[in-house]
Amino acid sequence: MATPAHCLYCFESLAASLEHKELLPLRQVHELWEQYKASLYTEAADREEPDLPELDVEPPPNIEDEIEEELSSLRENIKSNNALRVPGSSSGSSSSTPSSVSTSSSSQTPTSGLGSSSNSSSNSFLPAVSRLPSSQSQSYLATQDEDKPLFVTWNTVGRSGSKTLRGCIGTFEAQELEHGLKNYALTSAFDDSRFLPITKRELSTLECGVTLLTDFEPAPTPMSWDIGTHGLRISFTYHSKRYGATYLPDVPVEQRWTKEETLISLMRKAGWGGKKDEWKKVADLKVIRYQGKKVAVDYTGWMEWKEWVEKQGGP
């Protein structure tokens, strides 16, 4: 599973290339990210539990006398009612007790806001793994050393928050993450043929997304996959030529496509030029489904992390 540290490392790789600076190792970025994340949770906990002054509140004067008078009056009424009872008759009685009013308090904890807006930008990319028990968290982090197929996506973020694709390239071959993330962060930034190379002045407008791919398997039919869960890798024959293309799992979600619309769009991306209602006639259409959740960090998130690192006396 991708983490914000992977996105930070891609930002570091791009900035190091553009500014001709030395690049931090991925493991060091991970360690600094974990320390930064812990500091944010500590700050959040301090804000949630303020030290409140103790209030010495005295009861109103003579309140005990008022209570005793109320009880005496109640006893007299009970005696009067018992005296008026008719022998042999049954009476239904209801006892009322003071209602208990409960108040619920909610405590806010940092949540994972990856890819979404948050009132607190410094907490905007805390992952759910932060709330795992330490043993599970260590196991989770240990998996980051595994080789994985991966994709790196660069988006331009507008003033309104709208996002526009700026570059996206990856590989289906398992990569050692330090090499693979750096390689494809730069390849998607500089070598995506659909766009001009990213420049230094664009850094402040960027968002970086990383997707690590897992669970590849043939789909029994072209429609045997789930939106939001699976990415697709297709191949087919058209006019005696072989074509292929892929969409990451988040694409149909972001575009709000149906499964059929997703397949047709993906076939057109591969080079198919037929009518959309004839896609089922395409010979030898094969679909490989896979999984992978994209994690994204924008320029602001990257700079907040960098500023924290600098304050700690880091590189």
Q: How would you describe what is shown here?
A:
The protein has helices at 4-19, 26-48, 63-83, 134-142, 177-190, 250-255, 259-270, 299-311, and strands spanning 148-157, 163-175, 206-212, 214-218, 230-238, 241-247, 283-291, 295-298. Helix content is 36%, strand content 20%. The model is unreliable at 81-137 (pLDDT under 50). It starts with a helix and ends with a helix.
SSE arrangement:
Elements: H1 4-19, H2 26-48, H3 63-83, H4 134-142, E1 148-157, E2 163-175, H5 177-190, E3 206-212, E4 214-218, E5 230-238, E6 241-247, H6 250-255, H7 259-270, E7 283-291, E8 295-298, H8 299-311
Antiparallel strand pairs: 1-2, 1-3, 3-8, 4-7, 5-6, 5-7
Helix pairs in contact: 1-2, 1-5
Describe this protein with a few key phrases:
20% strand, 8 helices, four-stranded antiparallel sheet, alpha+beta, 315 residues, globular
User: Mind summarizing the main beta sheet?
Assistant: 4 strands, antiparallel
Shape: globular
Termini distance?
27 Å
Query: How many DSSP-defined strands?
Result: 8
**Beta strand %:** 15-25%
The helix content, as a percent range, equals 25-40%
* Helix and strand run: HHHHEEHEEEEHHEEH
Low-pLDDT segments? 81-137
Q: Number of helical segments?
A: 8
Structural class: alpha+beta
Whole-number average pLDDT? 80
Biggest β-sheet: strands ordered side by side in the sheet: 2-1-3-8
Whole-number radius of gyration?
Answer: 31 Å
